[in-house]
Structure formats: C-alpha cells, structure tokens
Amino acid sequence: MDLRILGIDPGYAIVGYGVIDFSACRFSVAGCGAITTSAGEEFPKRLKSIYDDMLYVIDKYKPEALSIERLYFNTNTTTAIDVSQARGVIVLAAESRGIPISEYTPLQVKQSVTGYGKAEKRQVMEMVKNLLGLSAVPKPDDTADALALAICHAHCASSDYSRLCRGIK
Question: Which of 18, 38, 45, 96 has the most CB atoms at less than 10 Å from its CB?
C-alpha cells in the first residue's frame, strides 16, 4: 500500500508545502514548494490566491492525507489572526476535496523528525534532508517545515504509515 501525505506550513506571505510518498516503509518526495502572495495585495485577494493555489496543489498531487501545523501565538495577535485566516482557507481547500486533516504542534514535529522535542530548526531541516535522501535542505524554510509536517504525520502512531511499518493492518 502506498500513502501520499501533503504537509503544510501555513502562512499568508508564504505557504510551504511538501508531498511525500510512502512505499515499503520508505519515503520519497513527490513534490514541494511554496505558495506566495504579495505584501501589496489586498488581504482578501491574498486569501483567494492561497485557496486557489492550494486546490491546484491538491489536484496535482492527489494526497490521501493533509498534515498542518497547529497554531498558537503568544505575542503578535494581528499576525496570529492573519495566519489563522490563511490556515482556514487551506483547511477549507482540503476539506472541499475530502482529504483527512491532521494537526501537529511544533514540539510534535521536532520529536517525530529528530527524536528530540526541543531540537533547533537547523537540526530539523538536516533530518528532513537525510530522511528524504535529498542533496540539500529544501528552500524556502517553509518548504522544509512542510516536509517535516508530512514526515511527522507518517510517524504518528495513528497513521497508516506507522501501522504498516509495524505490520498491523
């Protein structure tokens, strides 16, 4: 059984995405990149661009699961609200295509990818590169973060990937 997972690092200027395939307990990258919007564009138009581009990514790669970062902010509430709105249109795009959505905290992602919940960003990026057999860390950072989210979903105890690797049906 193959499993295709779309990882998303939400934002409103840059939305990182990473698509990984699982086959025979191994990862491969199907695609990755970033959806970007212009700072000078009206915010509702930026959200529409994110939504439309996310539908394009979903339709192109046809993932069976979406893994997205769970948001929490301690400082800038304006940024939090804007990122939350962008995240909302991303979730809406996935839901409109019937894709199951899973959320993970940064701590869960770090723990899953590196084995240490307080790993530094550089450590996570290097492990993403190594786990996926890439020659370099994907750029921008949001793309590497999205791939880490996809890996995290695959490693979760409740995911199809984890059950397959342990031989549980």
Answer: 18
